[in-house]
Amino acid sequence: MNFFENALCDLIDLEENLSTALIDVDNGDAPQQEVTEKVHELRDIIEEFKKIHIGLVKQDRLMNELAEIQL
């Protein structure tokens, strides 16, 4: 699997865990900290996606410039 497939699997797992954690917090079975930790994990994954997206945008721009030069 590549980075994006792994990240997507991580996001799906995190969403399932976050849903369960929210239910547990609502029922008083878990502390709010559990949900906070899941939200921080989600933010970390999103930041990684942003970094890679920026890199891909730069790469695409450079490839377009190169194609124009070659013409």
What does this structure look like?
The protein has 71 residues and is mostly helical. It contains two helices and no strands. Helix 1 packs antiparallel against helix 2. The two termini are 36 Å apart. The mean pLDDT is 86.
Number of strands: 0
Rounded Rg:
19 Å
Helical percentage: over 70%
* Mean pLDDT across every amino acid position: 86
**Would you list the SSEs in sequence order as H and E?**
HH
Shape: rod-shaped
List the helices and strands and how they pair.
Layout: H1 3-26, H2 32-70
Helix pairs in contact: 1-2
Summarize this structure briefly.
The chain has 71 residues and is mainly α. It has helices at 3-26, 32-70.
Attribute tags:
single chain, 71 residues, mainly alpha, 89% helix
